[in-house]
Amino acid sequence: MLLSRWLYRTRQAVHYLRAAPDTASLERARRILSPPLWRLFLRMTPSEQAHALGVLETLQRRGETHPDLLQAALLHDAGKAEAPPLRLWERALVVLTAPLWRKAHSLWAASPPRGWRRPFVIAALHPLWGAQQAQKAGASQRVVSLILNHQETLTAPPQNEFERLLEALQAADDEN
């Protein structure tokens, strides 16, 4: 099982390196986001934009139309733009070690974002950074909360609309 997950993540990383958004998808995102939120989206790398657009498309394919959810889909990784982009080996280090060393990830993420620990800090803090940026850009409180919590595990079935939206965002994010 672990080997198949690693192979899946390796293919995902190669796809990520080649990913770039197409013009039609960018136009769809521009219509969903206000001008300040659009500028926040444009700060993301092309591969992160393509990922966000994939999350959006997955949600729309599933019939999701809530404006806050669609905006959060586009901006959930915007906090990664707070630091220089992660290199492939850094992304791989975080993704491939996560199932084995979750506790160590938390310790490493509490370090200054330098050296080999930098990717763990970015992985842990990008939801907070993205939520702060979205709030400054005028996003609704629900969008901010969805971004902030997009990596938090729900421990029970959704109990309210926010949790339903969060679960939908997380499922689409995991698929992409």
Describe this structure in words.
With 176 residues, the protein is mostly helical. It has one domain (2-175). It is 69% helix and 0% strand. It contains ten helices and no strands. The protein has helices at 2-18, 23-32, 35-42, 46-61, 67-75, 88-97, 102-109, 118-136, 141-149, 161-175. The two termini are 19 Å apart. The relative contact order is 0.14.
- Tell me the strand percentage band: under 5%
Helix content: 55-70%
Which regions contain 5 or more consecutive residues with pLDDT less than 50?
none
Shape, per Cα inertia axes? globular
Structural class, by secondary structure, is: mainly alpha
Gyration radius over CA: 16 Å
Number of H- or I-type helical stretches: 10
**Overall pLDDT score:** 88
CA-to-CA gap between the ends?
A: 19 Å
Number of strands: 0
- The sequence of SSEs as H and E is HHHHHHHHHH
Supply the number of structural domains. 1
How would you characterize the largest beta sheet? none
Please give a quick description of this structure.
The protein is 69% helix and 0% strand.
What's the structural blueprint in terms of helices and strands?
Elements: H1 2-18, H2 23-32, H3 35-42, H4 46-61, H5 67-75, H6 88-97, H7 102-109, H8 118-136, H9 141-149, H10 161-175
Helix pairs in contact: 1-6, 4-5, 4-10, 5-9, 6-8, 7-8, 8-9
